[in-house]
Every structure is written in C-alpha cells, then in structure tokens.
UniProtKB/TrEMBL annotation:
Position of the signal peptide: none
Source organism: Actinomadura fibrosa
The protein, known as: MBL fold metallo-hydrolase
Gene3D superfamilies: Ribonuclease Z/Hydroxyacylglutathione hydrolase-like, Winged helix-like DNA-binding domain superfamily/Winged helix DNA-binding domain
InterPro entries: LACTB2_WH, Metallo-B-lactamas, RibonucZ/Hydroxyglut_hydro, Sec-metab_biosynth-thioest, WH-like_DNA-bd_sf
Length: 261
C-alpha cells in the first residue's frame, strides 16, 4: 500500500485501484466522498472492472457506516469507468451512474457544466474541462477546498491528450483562475498523490504545455512532417513505451498550430 491509498481530505477518501502502469501511474484513484455524519456517500470513478477493487470500495463505504448514494465519472476511460455499472450493482439496487457521455451512464441523469450534486448533504459543483478527453469533468468540493480533476491534472507526470489542445489549454487556464478565486486548498487527481499547492501545480502544467508546443513548432520548422517524426525529436528523452501516447498529444498539438495559422 502506498501513501496514495487512504489519502484525502475531511470528506474525500482515496481507494487506490491495483492497475498501475506507465499510463495510470500508481493506479486509478477511486474517491469516496461524504459529508460528516451523512449516511450516503458519492463514489467518483469506481475504476477498472476488477471485482476485488470494487468490493474493497463497497466495503470501505460500509465501514464508514454509509451506503453508496451515487456514482460519478470524471470521464469515460476504462481505467475510471469500466467497473462503474458492476460497482453500482454491487452497491445496491437503484444506484445510478452519472457522466457527461450518455454511453457511460446508468439511469437517465447526465452530468454537465453548472450541475450541483447534493447527495447526502454534500455539495459538489460540476465543471466541464475538456482536453484529456472531450467528456472530461472537474468536480469542486467547496467544503474542503478540493478540486477533483480526474485525468485533467495528475499527481505527477503529464496528461495524454485525446481531445483538442486548444480545449485543454482553456481548461487549464480556467482551473488556474478558478483555483485562485476560490483559494483552492488541494487537487485530488485521478492518478498519483494529491497536490496541496494547486496554483503551483497548474502553473507547472501550463508552462509544460507551452514549452512542448514551442518544441513541436521547432521540430516542424526543422523538417518533421508526421506526428511520429515530431515525437522522435521532441520525446527523445522519454521512455519509448510512452511514444504511442505521445503521438496522440503531438497530433493534437499539430492540429492546434495548424488551426492558428
Ligand atoms: Zn483518462
């Protein structure tokens, strides 16, 4: 067990899924969130379809003297969402799964910008933060000053982009401005440890993206034509197992540069 399993805030508790990899870091962070004294909890990102992990989450909620009132997804990637329906069934009849993408819902309720989830007396505000994927959401837990970022901001390393870079940069800028305005205390990411200096973390992310963008621009100026050719230049120092993922990011960066011409 790492320092990630069991970390959290007064209301949020992390159960680490046993799916570590280069892409998922230590594994997926499943978040159990509940108001003190409440008998219902919200579970964010049940994780992969791993019966042992899902049971551990159900058992952890039960050990808090609670039941699962609702399941939310930060986005539809399988390491966050594949176990959601099975988890909802294990948690009890009628448990719903809410997500932006209708394909990942259980029940008819969606999840979108401006929604406020109030299960068990909690308050969770929903923000759409596309970029990692088009359906990426961020959840704001004002009572703890906590920002649940899913894969939009990770505990370390950087995020692979499947969505548009322009969207992602806007999402980071928005999270930076929002975190400053509300004086956010911590980021609770979808992978890796929590980040207790949200503004520093977001500045680091924003700087990194601007730097990479400049590198991609330079690689293109030096003759790279395809995403692969750009990756070979820009990601020469990065483990090759990550190159296919890097190609996704580079494709997105090339489209972004193209769109601004
Ligand atoms: Zn993801």
């Amino acid at each position: 067990m790492s320092e990630i399993d069991g970390m959290g805030t007064e209301r949020a508790f992390c159960v680490l899924a046993p799916n570590p990899s280069a892409m998922t870091l230590d594994g997926t962070n499943t978040w159990i969130i509940a108001e003190p004294g409440a008998d219902e909890a919200v579970v964010v990102d049940p994780g992969p379809k791993d019966g042992k992990h899902l049971k551990r989450v159900v058992d952890t909620v039960a050990s808090q003297g609670r039941r699962v009132g609702l399941v939310l997804l930060t986005h539809g990637h399988p390491d966050h969402a594949a176990g959601a329906v099975k988890f909802a069934e294990m948690a009890g009849r009628g448990t719903k799964v809410r997500a932006l993408d209708p394909r990942h819902r259980l029940g008819d309720e969606g999840l979108a910008e401006g929604d406020v989830v109030t299960t068990g007396g909690l308050e969770l505000q929903i923000m759409e933060t596309p970029g990692h994927t088009d359906d990426s959401l961020t959840f704001w837990l004002p009572a703890d000053g906590a920002v649940l970022t899913g894969d939009t901001v990770l505990g370390y390393g950087t995020t692979v982009l499947e969505g548009a870079l322009g969207d992602y940069l806007s999402s980071l800028d928005r999270l930076r401005a929002f975190s400053a305005e509300v004086e956010a205390a911590t980021i609770l990411p979808g992978h890796g440890p929590k980040l207790d200096d949200p503004l520093a973390a977001l500045d680091h992310y924003i700087d990194h993206r601007r730097e990479r963008l400049a590198q991609v621009e330079a690689a293109i100026a030096a003759g790279a034509r395809t995403p692969r050719e750009v990756v070979e230049r820009v990601y020469a120092d990065v483990d090759r197992s990550l190159w296919p993922a890097a190609e996704w990011s580079v494709r997105s960066q090339m489209e972004y540069l193209e769109s601004r011409r």
